[in-house]
Amino acid sequence: MSTMTFQSMPIPSTSAAGGSTLSTADGIDNDITPSSSLNTRSGAAKYRGASVEDLQLGPAFALSKNQNVMQAIELAYDRDFSYLPILDRNRRPLGYINVPALKQAWEAGQIDADAPVQNLATKFDRSSKTGRPYSIITPDTPLEELEEFLRTNDFALVTDHGRKFVLGVATKQDLDNFVTRRGNAF
């Protein structure tokens, strides 16, 4: 036989200063104004054991290293992407392009529309010579680890464990959307 425990139910109220609080049955007020936003909670509280797979990312869209600048810009803007992974002939990730920067350079006449994106991509450094670890983000990666990675990177490529296929692209916005969808009630 299992034992059930109950927590007191929050009761919304408005403070004298006009901010919102949650009052529990035991009289404790919890400030829920924007300064105590979802983003300030610890990863464990925000994500509750979720992994990258729980973000429900759309399928990855990547470019062949041989596609040209104009194709890259058009394809990225059709799909509303800011970053596109670049793949080699075996579909392994080589690097990525920053689409707004690429478009700006093309509009300024600094690059040719027919140039292959491979020449303009930011390459991934998989060597241990740089001292920077190569982070592998897979569907099983906990969201706390993804959040830590995104503190110093604009996006993460989600790959299989062998880094042979790009499965998706995750951003800080994807994490924020996940927290919003999941809600802040426990």
Automatic annotation (TrEMBL):
Domain of life per record: Eukaryota
Ranges of biased composition (kind: Polar residues): 1-12, 32-41
Domain CBS per the UniProt entry, residue ranges: 59-98, 135-176
UniProt-listed InterPro entries: CBS_dom, CBS_dom_sf
Chain positions covered by the region annotation Disordered: 1-41
Gene3D superfamilies xref list: CBS-domain (3.10.580.10)
Any single Pfam family the record assigns to this protein: CBS
Stretches with biased composition (Low complexity): 13-27
Name listed for the protein in its UniProt record: Related to TAF10-TFIID and SAGA subunit
Source organism (scientific name): Serendipita indica (strain DSM 11827) (Root endophyte fungus)
